[in-house]
Recover the amino acids of this structure.
């Protein structure tokens, strides 16, 4: 699906954007009163392209396979900051790790890498959409044969029923951790916010 969005929808949107910019150029020579409307169309098309590109990347995180898990999460942190702007409240998303960030991509196996990436992606996206947060901290550390993945925010915290009656997103996250043979814990952060903590054997 991600590849189809990239090769189909994104190309069509880009073509329409190109034609709209060309039309605006012609209208500028005639000092058309409709120029503001055309500019709004161009702005909306640009935003649609950015959203579609983010969706395609999320459905098909190519960077995980080609450039490694660490680089893919770095890109994700950048995308989270960009996505937050569309919700009207810019968020700082930082990432720290003790994994090698040199020329050789770090990998724990294709399937494990993608599962870990999806866990981080879901937790960070939930924080953007639901937590009214201003900062998200993503941490990924390995000690001996265990990886600790931690996603913390300083937002409004968990709804009282979030743990006892988790939504689909949290259930999928937990299932991904279980598939990796790990454990996941969700708890309040200090002084406020939420911490998602995963312990995964590697």
């Amino acid at each position: 699906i991600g590849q189809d969005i990239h090769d189909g929808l994104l190309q069509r949107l880009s073509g329409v954007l190109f034609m709209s910019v060309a039309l605006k150029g012609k209208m500028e020579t005639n000092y058309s009163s409709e120029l503001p409307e055309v500019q709004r169309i161009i702005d909306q098309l640009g935003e649609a392209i950015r959203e579609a590109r983010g969706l395609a990347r999320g459905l098909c995180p190519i960077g995980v396979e080609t450039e490694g898990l660490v680089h893919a999460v770095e890109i994700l942190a950048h995308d989270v900051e960009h996505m937050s702007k569309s919700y009207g409240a810019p968020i700082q998303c930082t990432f720290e790790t003790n994994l090698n960030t040199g020329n050789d991509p770090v990998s724990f196996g294709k399937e494990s890498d993608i599962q870990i990436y999806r866990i981080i992606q879901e937790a960070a996206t939930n924080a953007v959409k639901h937590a009214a947060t201003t900062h998200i901290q993503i941490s990924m550390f390995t000690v001996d044969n265990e990886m600790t993945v931690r996603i913390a925010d300083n937002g409004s915290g968990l709804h009282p029923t979030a743990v006892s009656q988790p939504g689909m997103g949290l259930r999928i996250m937990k299932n991904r951790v279980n598939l990796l043979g790990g454990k996941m814990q969700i708890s309040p952060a200090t002084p406020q916010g939420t911490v998602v903590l995963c312990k995964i054997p590697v």
Observations:
- The mean pLDDT is 83.
- The two ends are 29 Å apart (CA to CA).
